[in-house]
Amino acid sequence: MQKFLQHNIVQDYLRTPSAIISSIVLVSIIFCAIFAGLITNQNPFDPMQLDLMDSQLPPVWLEEGDGRFILGTDEQGRDVLAALFYGSRLSLLVGLASVLLSCFIGIGLGLAAGFFRGMTDVIVTRLADLQMTIPGLLVALMLAGVIKSQMSMEMQETVMIYVVILAIGFSDWPKYARVTRSAVMIESQEDYVLAARAMGASPWYILFKHVLPNVMRSNIVIATVGLGIAIMLEATLSFLGAGVPVSTPSLGTLIRTGANFLFAGEWWVVLFPGLMLILTVFSINILGDWLRDAMNPKLD
Amino acid sequence: MLQVKDVSIRFESRRGNVLAASKVSLNVERGEILGLVGESGAGKSTIGNAVMGLLESGGSVTNGEIIFEGQNLLNLDKEGMRAMRGKRISMIMQDPMTALNPVKNIADQMTESIAYNLGLNAKEALAEAISWLKKMDIPNPEERIYHYPHEFSGGQRQRIVIALALCGKPDLVIADEPTTALDVSVQAQILKLIRKLVAETNIGIILVTHNMGVVAEVTDRVAIMRYGELVEIGPTAKILTAPETDYAKMLIASVPPGDTKLHRLPVPEADGTLPPAQAAVHRDFDESDVILEARNLSITYNPGGGFFSKGEPVRALQDLSFKVPRGGSMGLVGESGSGKSTCARGIIGLTPTSGGQVYFNGQEISAMSEKQRRPLRPAMQMIFQDPYSSLNKRMSILDVIAEPIRFYGLANNATEIEHRVVELLERVGLNGDALKRFPHQFSGGQRQRIAVARTLASKPELIICDEPTSALDVSVQAAVLNLIKDLQDEYKLSLLFISHDLPVVRQMCDDIIVLKQGQLVEMDHTDRIFDNPQADYTKELIELMPHMDDFKTA
Amino acid sequence: MAIKLLQRLFQSLLVLFATGLLAFLIMSFAPDPTNNIAGDYATEADRERIRAELGYDRPFLVQYGDYMIKFLQGDLGSSLASSEPVAELIAARAPATLELVLVSTIMTLGAGIWLGIFTGVNRRSKRTQAILTSSLLGISMPTFLLGLLAIYIGAVELGWFPASGRKTVDIGLWDSSLFSLEGWRSIFMPALTLSIFNVGLFIRLVRADVLEIRTMDYIKFARARGLPEKTINNKHVLPNAVMPVINIAALNIGVMIAFSLITESVFQWPGMGLMFIQAIGFSDFPVMSAYFLLVAAIFICLNLMADILLSIVDPRIRRGE
Question: Which residues span the domain enclosing C116?
Fold first, then answer.
């Protein structure tokens, strides 16, 4: 439906090499993460497939490197490359899910606050203000930490991933709520909303048919940046031990376990997951930057 | 003094290149005000910026010369151009609310400029600055000069902006829409001040404006621009009375006259010829067949106080009674804050009324619930002021116009809807290609036509027009006003027409209500109001109308 | 203006109490200490008596009020892990965190303001592009990863800095790292790590503000009056950039206090953040909630200070609009 508008953005995209490169990188990462099982010859988290004889091998271009393990192995004989793909699968999944959760809460509350004003607005704004006074990291850490402490080890295995999604999702909603609220306030002043009211349309009709499509644009931009932040936050939580358990590892847990062997000289166990993490977030941020400029005709 | 020769200006941006001016030539002499007029996108401000050497980023002069007192400004380097600015050439900005640095007081801003441009020391500069404020009629300048911009009114700020622009004693000043952001009465004062300064100091001024009234009021000569090209240049009296080019003729003809009512405003035919203006014919309708009636209508609203303070209720409209006959058109006139828009919104149900009744086709609608009102809604529709805001930018034109048809259930299937929408589009002078496109692909005038088509979709009997053309260029305004009149005749529509622009109201309405601060000032037939106003306030409003007519009769 | 500040103060207190409610709720996750005190053989009556002594039989709001009053008086309860008073634990560890944040803040503000303004004023130079790309990379690097990188390069490979821990000398009031070479060597890498993400953020925020100011009409008007570019930057752009920079700085210092727990954890820096991470590991709820509330309180104070500073600096607030 918005073919023409997107046409403009597509044109802009084709003229921005950094956006093209970063999206290609991102798509490759997502591809490797989704099809990790098909393109690696080992599931690094299936103990049956590990062989301690293969442990602590350096990357293939170093002297003791092994052709089967391009980026080397860790102390349990895990293929670092395979672990990388499986790890980014979880990182991306958690990042995406928590951003969706933030969006859902934030946009929902923002719409309500901006449209109904009055008490709803006061409560939502105050809640958002309150949470903005505490850094997201602390909120997520606190939520994840407290819930984790209430669970048994077995429960953690299965439930912790949802807890992390919940914790990150709840730490980041105020941004969306604020942007949505002010966008709704601005849009509600527009004549097309008055025109719909003059037609006799109900608030719900106006909210969903007219206002919502118009506030999505600014949310898409912050959601892109938010995805990068969520992925970093997940890695940080896992690194600090308040995230997903080691048995279902993410990039963060890989770095956490690898860090213990850093001083023994096994830098590759930390370096490659770290690079993967940076590459992912960096690409997302470049895309986010481009998207913000491309969607804002005021700049340039 | 200044000669612009064959100047072309191009803008490059991430959305492609635009030629903003092409081979423009004009000149300004000392002691003269040159009006640079044109509709939006004409490139008039761009020329002003180019003379200043202050084109927005991405813009560059690709051709021609700008010669100021024998020197080509385009050959100057950055430093040389900077030395010209302030001292030799200066600029008056459009919006006095944003032209002054908010965190520095007036003394800082003025002495800085004076000291820099005239080489005075701080003490001398301050004395000079105070004398400027005196010249600008700022009361108590010795003390006021230490105040910050936010502590002055809009008119005072514009005077300070003018003082700042002139304090370096420039020979040429570019005034970019200097009165557009101001109220009508303040506008008149500022124009008088500019006129006086030119006479006293013998400077030259390029006055960039879109307002033909302003041109008629103060300029000596006029240059008309369109699509980046110079169309015509000459003495103001000649251009306004006997323009040569088709565009200039059209532009001047489309300014609604305040002294007579025309049948239609002259708009060029398909072959470009301009039909002669015809006096209005008397429209016939039954005065006793009333479609809309307001009885003692009052609207009070609470602007909503803060957490600690309760807002004072504002009485936006008090005790207004009037009748609109079927097929007639009633004008609501007043300055901002007069309650004219509030009245319209109260009638259509966008703002709750606090007293009195509104009858539509004999039924009291002011007391109805939304449900009771629904069946009556298609018959009463509204056209909004700003076509950039009244069309949802995420909807295709088909969806925009079809929305009321679908909403009221006026068609049976998609083909029928599409058929009806195409019919409406053609009726307002657009064709069916527009269906799948989006609002941003249309010009302001086209958008307002689309808005009119949407209004017609539910086959209304009464249309409330809230300043339907005040966001449009004057030639586009003429076409849209004519369209509304055509539609009124064709569908026997009744109009409630709201505007602050008296000449427009004179063209459109049979009867007029003059409002001031929510209260009725005067109500009468249009011609009687204009030719023989009774209330002082009405007289004053008519006095402040732009006086293009002076030239026409001269 | 005084009334506005009083209003802000009042609002800040409200926010503090609301955060306090969260902290108090966290506390309530702690296991009921009655069992530990009473032992396995206590009767129900004994338990009731102990609960009454501890004040657990009172209504929820009274307990919460009590908690907040004690917090404001500096009584933060006792650690479940070590049974030491939390206030003492925090007092012992606060200097480490505060020194770390102080050094980092100086690095961040110094580099961030300067680079932010530089990139805002010189919009399209090669250097600006390089700085902007670096800053984007900076905000794409998780702090813990940077810490590991710093340890690997600075400590393992080069051996110039210690890999972890804090070296101090007693300066009378507290043990400080800022008065000895050893101390500086130990604080340098944690502080640098902590500041890099924030410098990246700071540059981008300051630049956006400077760019916005430079599009304002009054800047164009200043140019039209022939003022030199340097004067325009120094006298018109910068004074208007001060206000947003104050806000960004307040936000940033708060973020750094929170992020310091990552750095402290990576470098085993014995500050409040490390204490908090360890407390999560031990489920030591009084320590967790006290830290949480304390950081929020610091955040609130910083914002309040920024507001006061703004009302002094900005004539529109100072002289009431």
Answer: 93-283
